[in-house]
Amino acid sequence: MVKPVGARSLHNQVVHELGQLIVSGKLAPGEGLPREDLLAEQLQVSRTALREAMKVLVAKGLIESRQRTGARVREAIHWKQLDAEVLAWRCASMPTDSFIEQLVEMRELIEPGAAAAAAKRRTDAQIIELKAAYDAMAASRDLDAWAEADLAFHEILLQATNNSLMVSLFSVIETALGTFFLLSARNSGNFKAALPQHAKVYEAIRRGQPEVARKAMLVMVADSRANILGQSRKAT
């Protein structure tokens, strides 16, 4: 099950290989990993590189290592769920309905409040940047360009709160948001279908209307939920 890591790889690539196996469920919770010498041989890396990788995985909560029983995969409840790499691995595997629901709930808790705060505190320069991101969404000709501009729009919106904690949050949830936007646009009949709702959020922030911005963002999140979960249920 464990594939060799490329000859030029360092311990971070061992982390990536094992991390994906764990998060995807190919290495199940409670499952023991091979002995250090065997695992290093399977991955074709030095035992030193493997040890460094294992330290990282322990810190992320994905595995536990004990002297007598060796290394075992931990239950998902112990994972550092907001770790950027853990989020990326979860998003790289086929997202489940439950994970998508968690992403939606995260957005419902964060983004409407952020939109309201941005309407109160945004600067003129930030409004210009937000409009530029919106224009890039409008001008996008393919799904990838749309998703990139969409992510930029939401990043600038968080920056416009001028709340340092909120701004720093983006670096944590960036991967999850990017995946969410891509899935939502892909599942929509028209990947630009959310453009009018983004326009409403932008206008409310520009005009300094916190409650209007909050409600517009809630509608946007609800529409995204319908796009993603509606399509995934049709496929089952």
Describe the fold and architecture.
The longest helix is centred in the last third of the chain and has 26 residues, at 210-235. With 236 residues, the protein is mainly alpha-helical. The protein is built from 10 helices and 2 strands. Helices cover 69% and strands 3% of the residues. Strands 1-2 form a two-stranded antiparallel sheet. A hairpin with a 3-residue loop joins strand 1 (63-66) and strand 2 (70-73).
Give a topology summary.
Elements: H1 11-23, H2 36-43, H3 47-59, E1 63-66, E2 70-73, H4 84-92, H5 97-121, H6 124-139, H7 143-159, H8 164-187, H9 195-206, H10 210-235
Antiparallel strand pairs: 1-2
Helix pairs in contact: 1-3, 1-4, 2-3, 4-8, 5-7, 5-8, 5-9, 5-10, 6-7, 6-9, 7-8, 8-10, 9-10
Tally the helices. 10
Q: Would you identify the regions where 5 or more consecutive residues have pLDDT less than 50?
A: 232-236
For the sheet with most strands, the description reads:
2 strands, antiparallel
Overall strand count: 2
- Overall geometry comes to elongated
Sketch the topology as an H/E string, one letter per element: HHHEEHHHHHHH
Placed side by side, the strands forming the largest sheet appear as 1-2
Any key phrases for this structure?
about 240 residues, mainly alpha, 10 helices, 2 strands, about 70% helix, disordered C terminus
